Amino acid sequence: MSGLFPFKNTILKTMNFPEDFYTHLQNHNYTEIKGGIERDTFLEIWVVSVNTRVFARSWNKSARSWFTAFLETGVGQLKYGEKVINVKGEKLDTTAPIQEEINQAYLKRYNQKENIFYSEGITQPEYLDYTMEFFYSEKANK
Questions:
Q1: Which end of the chain has the lower number of beta carbons within 10 A, N or C?
Q2: Cα-to-chain-centroid distance, residue 4
């Protein structure tokens, strides 16, 4: 029977975020992030959505960051306004076809004069390896 539902796990993993989260992404440049379960503080980053899927890239590519915390633990939180939501995160493969759509989402969303340098930078090939996809989780991260 499992052959009838080859995308079962993908469907479950891509449960949509709350509607007001997508509204936040459209109207605000920054979303706050906390990777792992040990960090106390949030960091402001750029987050984009492509067809209700949610992604971010690490700008600094540092050894100890929200990105590496997600690689190590697979969990974290996103904060928008006063709301905090639990998420799971998975590194996206550099060859995933959606990478180009993510590039376009960054260029379209962050096209303000002061952001163009950064949006063009974060869409360069070396940043594809620092792309994280987030999955909404109603359960508390442990």
A1: N
A2: 30
